[in-house]
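Deliverable D4.2, example record:
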Amino acid sequence: MTDASNPLLQPSTLPYGLPDYSAIRPQHYLPAFRAAFEEHLREIGRITMVRSMPTFENTIEALERSGELLDRVAHAFYTVSSADATPEIQAVDEQLAPLMAAHQDAVTLDGALYWRVQQVHAQLGGLELDPEQRYLVERRHREMTHAGAALGDDEKARLTQLNQRLSTLSNTFERNLLDDTNDLAVVFDDPAELDGLSTGELSAAERSAQERGLEGRYLISLPLFTGHPYLAQLRDRESRRRIMAASRTRASRDNASDNRPVLAEIVRLRAERSELLGYASHAAYVTADQTAGSPEAVERMLRQLAPPAARNAVAERAALQAIVDETEDEPFPVEAHDWAFYTERVRTARYDIDTGALRPWFEAERVLQDGVFAAATKLYGVTFAERPDLIAYHPGARVFEVHDADGTAVGLYILDLYTRDTKRGGAWMNPIVSQSHLRGTLPVVVNNLNVPKPGEGEPTLLTLDEVTTLFHEFGHALHGLFARVTYPHFAGTNVFRDFVEFPSQVNEMWILWPEVLDDYARHHETGEPLDPAVVERLRATETFNQGHATSEYLAAAWLDQAWHLVDADAEIGDVAAFEAASLADIGLNDPVVPTRYSSTYFAHVFSGGYSAGYYSYIWSEVLDADTVEWFRESGGLTRENGDRFRQRLLGVGGSKDPLEAYRDFRGRDAEIGPLLKRRGLEA
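Output generated by the structure prediction step:
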């Protein structure tokens, strides 16, 4: 294959540099990566071979200019490998994982490059640099040091081995999880077993079964988290039990997709790597370069929140048990698969709200256009125009062009809404093209969700949780679209892991905001708005079931910390036993409130970027809740407020210390009170 015949090795001719996915084939990726690796190493060589003393321009800025081809190829590929992982793409990913890890180490651990970065860093006080340039020097030096660039040659060699093996294992973990999640999708023969689902949901289940050749049957695919949204609706207790059992079994059976030995090796190798780098644990290594600073700071927060959350969950379970005892002919002890169903009954009894019955008011296209997009227009002045002429990586992914109020181009937004067997679970945002003044690029960002696709002609009706997810992920997209930086190192969401969730959580605020809700929450058949009385009752339920929600989240966050506090010599033994002991340690070992992710399907930390960092959601929520208070105090959904938030937080990307940026926006540090109030943990 020649460079000319590989579309990945030629600059895209499409608007905004969108890759020409119509021309890209799986066999193009590995040759493109190899060519990009070689080009990047040549660029690094040109930096390190310069005879003159290191300067910002010939070292730091030159480093920012390097790797453009690799970034282009990598963004194009990893978008596909997560959202449309066909067997051919999985095979590429498996071969690529150690190659990518080795290349990253070849650059990050390059001794000659590190020496030059050190020299510029040592001169920093006397250099005439703007704030972004100064911060770039600090971050480049910190990140290379943190990654091991100061180690000796033998230690670097071992570090490279560890990184390559860990990259392969993370890839294996994700592949196993995808395979077993597909294998464990629950098949039902009789629609009566799915009593409680809407016509559209039954249609989606029937369509999923047909796609697997299971005519006349119904298939319920599993989300990434423990349980399933349908558990709140299904009247048949055995159906609920089957779905919950399948969910909790994923990648923990004695078969080819068993993730227990995979995660045990990941934990051991991460611990060895952290010791090699001079840290007591992987958690200490990760948090040292985050806003938290240490695992002790994370533990203090989690232990502060866990007891009141667990107490609230016990009280909530008692309410569920009471309704079971009152309404069931043969009462039974409430179990994990019953929680969501009876929670909806309690919610209905207390607040006269059935969230499942709200779905006709949440038609997906209206939520997107009149909710998600409209809120962004009111707040930031941006507009969205669909570009059906632009083809994304999958026929189901839609492309929108984004413009500012004055007509200036902002970038492209891609939405990939529906679930499929080749898409990993959960929801996420990722860039395909990152913005950079240095490179002259504007952003192209993607949101992926996993909403079941209804049958032909049926409307897509979202749950309130799915509406929340769409607003949340769009908050990440706005961060990626709005950041305006010179250097690609700071583009979009390239911020500290325990800060990155903050803007996305803030964007959830607008879901029930009157000026937004009144436009998008309309009955899909009649156009009738959602009853204001129902909306008020929804607002009144803000702390409802927060004991369960907070407990399941904190359990997962603590489990992540526990795995990554072990040392390299620790005997892992039985994974389930380790998990149970860890949850008992923090008082979150209630079998009726299982952790949001069990170890074998905890993709965030074993195949994603959240290892020892899953705490970041609630860490960021402190900032989020405090920011929501500011918006309410300052007049809410106004352009003035939106412009302030955009300019001082979203717009700076990673080019500024995030807590400094927050103080610039808020006028002070965040306070924890609004978070405690939101989650009902004040007392």
